[in-house]
Design brief:
By secondary structure, the protein is an alpha+beta fold. It has one domain: Beta Polymerase, domain 2 (2-Layer Sandwich). The chain is 35% helix and 30% strand. The strands form 2 sheets. The chain has a 6-stranded mixed beta sheet with strand order 1-5-6-9-8-7, with helices on both faces. Strands 2-3-4 form a 3-stranded antiparallel beta sheet, covered by helices on one side. About 16% of the residues have low confidence.
């Protein structure tokens, strides 16, 4: 199943320390704190954390693709677009920083390239950040939809 999120209206809430925190749909982007293997629920919490962080960074057309039971690569893919190479590098850099702060060891590929495609692998989730042109060229959403139809 592929889920796309539209740009949601971000709300701002005041914390006890008078700092503003950006939230999406009224929920704080908070990573689950765990070590070792993650449960299905924790993976879904991490998926929510990742998609909210991308939304906060103004990523466009964020899509999640459920791969559970379809491949051993990952349980989910997250595909999002940035408006430019600089935007994609910023999204990737901020996501890596947030994941590290939350205690996750993530691997990144493409951060030294032209900025058309950056891949981040964290636990059982793979994040693809594309320029719109590169996203259209590789069409990962279409590829997985086709694979799903053929397996049914």
């Amino acid at each position: 199943m592929i889920e796309k999120t539209k740009k949601s209206s971000q709300k701002t809430v005041q914390t006890s320390k008078d700092k503003k925190k950006s939230t999406v749909a009224g929920l704080k982007a908070k990573a689950p704190k765990v070590k070792g293997t993650l449960s299905k629920e924790q993976i879904k919490e991490l998926l929510t954390f990742i998609t909210k962080k991308l939304d906060e960074g103004k990523a466009e057309e964020i899509a999640t693709i459920d791969l559970e039971g379809k491949t051993s690569l990952a349980d989910f893919l997250v595909v999002a677009s940035g408006t430019s190479a600089r935007h994609i590098f910023g999204l990737a850099n901020n996501l890596m920083t947030d994941l590290k702060k939350a205690g996750y060891a993530a691997k990144i590929s493409g951060e030294n390239g032209e900025g058309n495609w950056v891949l981040i692998d964290v636990v059982d989730i793979i994040v693809h950040l594309f320029t719109p042109q590169t996203r259209t060229l590789y069409d990962l959403e279409g590829l997985w939809q086709k694979a799903q139809r053929e397996s049914e």
